[in-house]
Amino acid sequence: MTEKYDFSKPYAMPDERGHFGPYGGGYVAETLMLPIRELDAAYKRYLQDDEFLAELDADMQHYVGRPSPLYHAERWSRELGGAQIWLKREDLNHTGAHKINNTIGQALLAKRMGKKRIIAETGAGQHGVATATVAARLGLECVAYMGAVDVERQALNVYRMRLLGAEVVAVESGSRTLKDALNEALRDWVTNVDDTFYIIGTVAGPHPYPAMVRDFQAIIGRETRQQLQDRQGRLPDALVACVGGGSNAIGLYYPFIDDQGVAMYGVEAAGDGLQTGHHSAPLCAGRPGVLHGNRTYLMEDEDGEIIETHSISAGLDYPGVGPEHAWLKDMGRVDYVSITDDEALQGFHALTRMEGIIPALESSHALAYTMKLAPTMSKDQILVVNLSGRGDKDMHTIAQREGLKF
Amino acid sequence: MSRLAAKFAELSKTGRKALIPFVSAGDPNPDFTVPMLHAMVGAGADIIELGVPFSDPMADGPVIQRASERALSHKMSLRKVLQLVAQFRAQDPDTPLVLMGYLNPIEAMGYEAFANAAQRVEVDGVLTVDMPPEEAAEYVDLLKARDIDPIFLLAPNSEEQRIRHVNDVASGYLYYVSIKGVTGAGHLDTADVKTKLQQIRSCTDLPLAVGFGIKDAETAKTIARIGDGVVVGSALIDRIEANLDDPDAAREEIVSLLQSMRSAMDN
Fold first, then answer.
1. Nearest CA to CA, how far is B257 from chain A (Å)?
2. B92 given a catalytic annotation
3. Contact A97, A126 (CB under 8 A)
4. Domain spans, chain B
5. 3.40.50.2020, 3.20.20.140, 3.30.1330.130, 3.20.20.70: which CATH number matches B3-266?
6. Which of A230, A353, B201, B203 is deepest in the core (most CB within 10 A)?
7. Which residues contact residue A55 at a Cβ distance below 8 angstroms, ignoring those fewer than 6 apart?
8. pLDDT tens digit sequence for A269-297
9. Is the pTM of this model over 0.80?
């Protein structure tokens, strides 16, 4: 916490072996050392390869539907009485969230590397659906690991994945949620390492995943920058995004990190409230440790055992966070804040009623923080919030919370 | 000379190979562990690998995962494992003991505090599954300064350059993971193991222990012909799991399996 972000030097993280300061790195068992080195080499090679990039761009445009709109939420901005709020509409991507930006990229890498089998972990099921989607399209075998608890509460996405031809494995070990799905996917990978490509869904895991997933998601920030330049001729004053693992947030921030005038806010899930211990906010209330291949902030007990997390949003229900966020927090470049379940629901309803857009519960955390931040800013300032996903998948959760049954 | 080096030197003189049983500390309950360790030594174990339970054992198959869960349900922790080691040492000053687990409990305690505590209770080696040599400089220095051997894994896909790198930082012995997979997975292929061990030996003088997939006396005997040590874990924990309501029976069955392995390896 003593260092401060130095804007005089261009941002160049991570280092050669995936370190963001003390965070990140490659903490995996020996059998996975070779595959992560091979993946690193492939990622570095193809991100400089014109043919690969042309294929990626074409898929982003014609299959995903990019660029996603940057929408000026005028009515909501007036209502809140402060900054002009612009929504980056990742919810309008194919499959309904930002997740596909990454799965398209990794699946194209898998194809280049000659891997025939794709595995993935999934919490809410959005990453699993985005992975099953690209696997179907490329004719690759797909296995999605999902905690048994999540299989139950996200039945619709489980069905979607199965329709797309993926095998969904309910993980019964540990707390039977996202972290255990990740453990099981790592166990699969170590067992089938020769023919299998592991598509991690967020900016976590061992190097090169945090950097690679960021690079695939950075299209969010690049488009935002261009769109705002075209329409307003300027940079935004503030960026707001929700942070579970943190891939939609890093994707929005990354092209703006060197712009001193752009404030950044990352919104974690405070669940029932940070003071209750029932939350998923490692950056706000955790401490550094090592899990799933990287050093980062974690939710753990005093003995270093990982503790169970809680959030109304399954996509934020993870005890770790991408290592780059840990670094950006320590450097003071991004302010990490938190929003409770109840506040997130207010954000959900506000956008639905004011703008006719039903957001995902994950994104609703960013919207709820926007409701706090925008009124403190002036009317000529611009706040961009990443609307990372659409809310269709959450209808059941919200109805149940409000005592309704279909 | 460390206890581990002395043990391998002694075995080498008599032409015997090390039998290295693994159990998870605190499984099925904390009272079971220390008597079990003594009984394993009595049954012919040369070195003990004691598992430190972790909430997220990514490299372990279902048998050791469940062992960790049972231990954690009794609030087992790295601190308490070290207390168990102290109890073991009070009656057994000779048998080398290696802690095997994951990095985060050590991170939480702090590397230096852990190294000091491990030295106090006379731990001889530490094997941290998710700590590769690339990240391990500080950890290795702290352990070695206290005469604790940092033990590292090698796998079927470890390349020669990497084997040399691991050899540069490791001491005590190298643990060869005989299959691509998790602990307790399917059967290993002896011919493959033999070929790989030859390659590894060309890069190191450290003793080679072989683990993952060794379930019975027959396999132990085969591996003892080509390696310097035989690690058996999941097959023992299977016995604990089959006798959860009868710890005495679990202990007897483990002793009997180890005796049969010992005898097969020595003859």
1. 27
2. no
3. yes
4. 3-266
5. 3.20.20.70
6. B203
7. A108
8. 999 999 999 999 999 999 999 999 999 99
9. yes
